[in-house]
């Protein structure tokens, strides 16, 4: 097994000390930092995304993998010029107005960051105007809305309407997710996509940006 495959395996297993040591070893041996990211760390997180989606990995394991990934990234960041740092795109994300649930949303953030997206996490209880302002400020390609309550999912529709009123709807893709959300609800309110879990959300963003 190559060192890159071993690093991917350490990420999959959530072994952050191992991932840190092997990343350092690869740096010391002169390996290209971007190859360490793409063929080692990100390759591992891609597998995590697939396994999580299939129900073969659970939330605490995914969090350990994300920690292993970011431990390696922290060592590599100073070696990579900002302009060389691979970015898959920019996503603004938040839990909608009236809703304080953020565990799942944080998981989506971690998976997106691990996949190379720049993520602006607005937090929880975000009203439509705040989403609109964030789109104006950050110009993301995708905006992600999370809701865990049947009473707050309607705020997703309000947010899409607010984007339309400000003439921003054509400039940004809207994806939605959370336990009570479904594809038919996404279709009903005119969202660009629905993801049932963090791995699918990452795939969806990749597809929408491509
Ligand atoms: Co609340 N809660 N809660 N809660 N809570 C639920 C959601 C509930 C189903 C429990 C129940 O009754 N069985 C119920 C909602 C009922 C409904 O509306 N259908 C409920 C309720 C009623 C409430 C309160 C109203 C309770 C009260 O005060 N009377 C209150 C509301 C507060 C508010 O938001 N205004 C409340 C409060 C809380 C806590 C604060 C105590 C806490 C939240 C802590 C926090 O998040 N920081 C809490 C919790 C923990 C839960 C449960 C137990 C767990 C939610 C969770 O974190 N799941 C939940 C019951 C349950 O789901 N079993 C419940 C784990 C997480 C990884 O999954 O969030 O689904 P999930 O995220 C997944 C996917 O949905 C998806 O990807 C994630 C990872 O795979 N996903 C996205 C999520 N967002 C996405 C966005 C995307 C794409 C995918 O794109 C943008």
Automatic annotation (TrEMBL):
InterPro entries, sorted: Cbl-bd_cap (IPR003759), Cobalamin-bd (IPR006158), Cobalamin-bd_sf (IPR036724), Corrinoid_p (IPR012741), Met_Synthase/Corrinoid (IPR050554), Meth_synthase_dom (IPR036594)
Keywords: Cobalt, Metal-binding, Methyltransferase, Transferase
Gene Ontology cellular-component terms listed: cytosol
Family membership noted in the UniProt record: Belongs to the methylamine corrinoid protein family.
Pfam family, one: B12-binding_2
CDD domains: corrinoid_protein_B12-BD
B12-binding N-terminal domain segment(s): 1-88
Biological process, per Gene Ontology: homocysteine metabolic process; methanogenesis; methylation; tetrahydrofolate metabolic process
PROSITE patterns named in the record: B12_BINDING (PS51332), B12_BINDING_NTER (PS51337)
GO MF, any single term: cobalamin binding
Domain annotation B12-binding: ranges: 88-210
Protein name as annotated: Methyltransferase cognate corrinoid protein
């Amino acid at each position: 097994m190559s060192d890159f495959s071993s690093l991917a395996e350490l990420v999959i297993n959530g072994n952050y000390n191992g991932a840190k040591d092997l990343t350092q070893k690869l740096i010391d041996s002169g390996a290209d930092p971007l190859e360490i990211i793409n063929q080692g760390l990100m390759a591992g997180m891609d597998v995590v995304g697939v396994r999580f989606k299939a129900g073969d990995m659970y939330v605490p394991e995914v969090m350990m993998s994300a920690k292993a990934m970011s431990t390696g990234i922290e060592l590599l960041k100073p070696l990579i010029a900002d302009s060389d740092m691979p970015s898959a795109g920019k996503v603004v994300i938040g839990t909608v107005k009236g809703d304080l649930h953020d565990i799942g949303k944080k998981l989506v953030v971690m998976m997106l960051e691990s996949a190379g997206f720049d993520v602006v996490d607005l937090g929880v209880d975000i009203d439509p105007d705040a989403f609109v302002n964030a789109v104006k400020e950050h110009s993301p390609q995708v905006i992600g809305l999370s809701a865990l309550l049947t009473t707050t999912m309607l705020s997703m529709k309000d947010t899409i309407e607010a984007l339309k009123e400000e003439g921003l709807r054509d400039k940004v893709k809207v994806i939605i997710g959370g336990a009570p959300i479904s594809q038919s609800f996404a279709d009903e309110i005119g969202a660009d996509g629905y993801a049932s879990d963090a791995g699918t959300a990452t795939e969806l963003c990749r597809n929408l940006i491509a």
